[in-house]
Amino acid sequence: MDPREALSRLTVHGPQMDGGSRGTAFDRLTAADVGFALGMGLGKGEARVLLAKYCDDRSEQKLLQAEFFAWMMDQAKEWARPRPGMVYGLAYAVSNEFLAANRCPVCHGVAEVQAGALRVSCEPCGGTGMRYPSEQEFADAIGCTIAAYRHIWAPRVAMGRRELDRLEYAAVTRFAEVMGNE
Predict the structure, then answer these.
(1) How many domains does the chain divide into?
(2) DSSP secondary structure code for residue 83 in this structure
């Protein structure tokens, strides 16, 4: 199996590895697969990202959030003194967005809801099936106004998202290398 395909299915709650009809007990990628890759050369930080995001490992999610908070605090040393708790609120909101499945809680990712006998487009997600935090939700998490969020904090949110995306890309790339050499 292509390592990228394996990674795309890397979840204990995910789809079956083999869509064929060879029987009823299909293999699934689990946290044990990440553990195998860890033993084959996957770094601890890379494994943490994969376990936290793809395997829904709560303890790894908390550790990843703590590491991300420390990274944000290091970045905040260069910022004009934010009020206590603002950097934590920012790190928490960005890391939760990164770790969440971002499926709409109303339609559960289907993009439609039942309204009597009709199926209509889901209003909260706009028919996309996805739900991302709004600017207002980020502003509330940080503890600032929407104007301050747009002017000061939005670039810092983007910086945090880029860092988490960079970590994920490095983990996915390394996982593909390790599983490709198996």
Answers:
(1) 1
(2) P
Q: Give every CB contact of residue 177 below 8 A, 6+ residues apart in sequence.
A: 3, 41
DSSP secondary structure letter of residue 125: T
Residue indicated by tokens 């990202």: 49
Written as six digits, the tokens of 141 are 């998490």
State which amino acid sits at residue 84.
P
Which tens digits make up the pLDDT trace of 155-175?
A: 999 999 999 999 999 888 888
Residue with tokens 């946290």: 31
Instruction: Determine the residue type at 134.
Output: S
> pTM (2 decimals)?
0.70
Element (H, E) at 138: helix 135-142
Could you count the other beta carbons within 10 Å of the beta carbon of residue 37? Answer: 25
Print the domain residue range for 15.
Answer: 3-180
Do 73 and 67 form a contact (C-beta atoms < 8 A)?
no
